[in-house]
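Table 4 source record.
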Amino acid sequence: MRKAWLFFLGLASVSGYTLPLFLEQEEPLRFLRATELLSIRLEALALDPSEEQAEKILGDLALFAGSLEVQDPDLLAALEGALEGLEEATKAKDAARLAALSRQTQGLLERVRARLVPQMGPALEAALMAQLLLLDDGVAESYEDAAGGEEGAYGVGRVALERVRARWQSLKLTLAGQAEGVARVEEGLRVLERLFSSPTAPARFQDPEDAEQAALDIVFALAAASGADLLPRDLGEVLAKVEGLVAQACGEGSRRLALERLLSAHLLYRAYLEDPLKTLAPGLGEELDGLLAGLARKLRGPAGAGTASDFEAVRNALVQAGHTLR
């Protein structure tokens, strides 16, 4: 999906501007989004076993596994064991075992969240909702993926929407006096709920842009009501964060932590930089996407490391991207 909302950048600048929350709180927000996506995928798998969605589980895990290994290696080992069992049960289409393992794993994920993000205020809650609505594997993107034929995507999007609605029920209690913003969020959620009204994927989908627009309306309303910056205003700030994460990955001694940083850099690139860069310089955009993905594959591989030249190639492409996006 072309992220049309990126072209709102710079149109709503304010005095006293600080970094958007998704950059300022990148690490805890990454932990929250990855564990929530894992939880969403588990619930969707229990309802409709999909090998395509099961394969994405390890990608979700890698976004926090290095940090969890540092803080609680036993908890990580327990989670990895449960996820391996889930993958096997999905391939076997064993619904009973899937349901039991899903319940067990959901409990482990609650412990992971409490370990990695012990405190979560309204602003972080709003930021998590925004990412679950707009980013890859969230509500709007899952609707488009399902319309394009991706197995299991509709179920993931529907469960994600249920999670967003549940979080909103709690968050809106903190927004007294913001009646207009609350009403706009409710309207956007109703639009999305109509798109996901069927328990299973419909035979005919509506325009996926309707889902993106409704999700965007909700995020703008959330930002106005909560006072939190939930969308980027300056691509240079996003690029600087990506460069910083790549530098951390390059200097990291732990393979898992290096992969975690690199995957986070790639996530930010795909969410906020890929579309503008591919519009302005299609060749460079494709190259940078490929370099980040290729380096992640090397870090996942048997050797568990990328070479200095791999990191240098990514850094050089990021410098070129900076010149292009200015």
